[in-house]
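Sorry, I am new here, but would you mind making up a protein's amino acid sequence and the tokens describing how it folds?
***
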Amino acid sequence: MYGWNGKLLRVNLTKGKAVPQKYDAEFAKTYLGGRGFAAKILWDQLKPGLDPLSPENLLIFAAGPLTAFSLPSSGKLLVAAKSPITGGYGDGNMGTQATVQMRKAGYDGIMISGKASKPTILHIQDDETELVDARDYWGEGTFKTEGRLKKEYSTTTGVVSIGQAGENQVKFANVISQGGRGGGRPGMGAVMGSKNLKAVAVRGTKTILAKDPEAMRTLGIEGYREVLAKPNYDFWKRQGTMITHEWSQENSVLPTCNFREGVFEKADQIGGFAMEKIKIDNRGCPNCNMTCGNIVEDTAKLPSELDYENVAMLGSNIGLGNLKEVATLNRLADDYGVDTISLGNAIGFAMEASEKGLIDYKIEWGDFEEAKILAENIVFKRELGDLLADGVRSASEKIGGDSAKWAMQVKGLEVSGYDCHTTPGMALSYGTCSIGAHHKDAWVISWEVSVGRENYSAAKVDKVIELQRLRGGVFECFTTCRLPWVEVGFGLDWYPKFLEAATGLSMSMDDLFIIADRAFSLIRAFWVREYATSWNRSMDVPPARWFEEPITEGPLKGSVLDREKYDNMLQVYYSKRGWDSQGIPTKATLKRLGLEDVSQELQGYVNLTPS
């Protein structure tokens, strides 16, 4: 087998054992890697209904057949498990040297079950694996943890770790690497903490075999050159994803005060150009020549890595217009190992609940000092933080009132940084995302604004599905970064050529879309199996605020989504996906995608429509 190593590492922390496990070429060809591998393993090996924070849950780190080769932005690692915040499938990707080292150690993934009897570090050096006592690390932040481990083993060792949020099992704790690269916002850090696993440190010295090494080398060189030659490259290097900030403000989609509005009066103080004035450095993922990590000094004169999402959610969404203060909240979140998107949601939710008198806690919009205290209280589950640590869906259920309408989540996962009062296509993307309300699978909003945001057309449904196939399917399975394609226009035609040079397999984009659809429908089946008879189409509907509370500021004031038109658009989406009226894959669809075994098992939980 070329491209793939053909081997996963199975770790049982309860038993203290680690055993290599081979997989065959058919499995590789069918699921490709990354998300495809994770979805299949979780479907096959998890008992439905298990507690996501129990030892029986599986924590998976997975790469794909292009990961770690010298190709543009190939340094991504997928982390997946049953999500503690949603109860469904959860994953996320992160740029990290750990994915390169894992592949060089001979593994395409690591599957971790059980629970260690004490805080533990999983250390992998090629074929040697050991579980190291981490009691001395427990209670430390991710920055210090990674620094100590690199000093202990080597500077080339790849490290992923959790901070105090993961240790305390905050349900939107994530996994951190390289001083601010986070992944797994649906609570993968909490799953890691529930297993008493503080970190994974991995180093490999082997060569990843390509079918055609010379073609791989040539394609890599040419691919990097093309990225550098793109017209938008220079501006991208200056601002990275922060280029989105001014665009969001101009187009009334910048989340403001818990997604009440789409414009923020202090937007220019926290945007990309404001960031450039205080930027001191730039970071990137392995194998990337369009590095997007913007480093600024925060209020404590410490480095903080900014991107659009964390600035939008910890800035305008909580009414905070000071970029250095936003950077401080972001740096604390990265060190504690808590997702910045959900954290910004939780703080914004608390501010609104305080304003409306639903909680006995005073915190006003834009109050940096109180926001910092609340962030720390969430991480350590103190006072109001204990309520918010389970996410805004759970918090709204407990405080009542009308808070469920402005608890900004889908399926339990908090909405990422785009207000959708005026963008039904992006609302559909959030509604149908495979992990809950996240932009990763289908960032359709830029296209939608350019072609006309007011309609609820089938063309928008087609675009959402196309992007889900590309972003949430092909790139997540490969496992490589989508940003060269999205941000500077690196051609999609490169990727089948990369795949053939790596593996020898000749696949068209249509072939890759079938794999993407297979992963997407398998993940949907996982959700349906977990929720069983309580599953219904309301699971795919975004928050009531966007339908019922018009925005009051900006050029599009008065706008809301049309619930009936959204529901019709959702039905069109289901039909095009081959799912029934409740969003459940039909027998015919599962058969077409080679998932007959999934169909047979799913019938034990819900009635499947034949076609």
About this structure: The first strand starts at residue 7 and ends at 12. DSSP finds 26 helices and 17 strands in the chain.
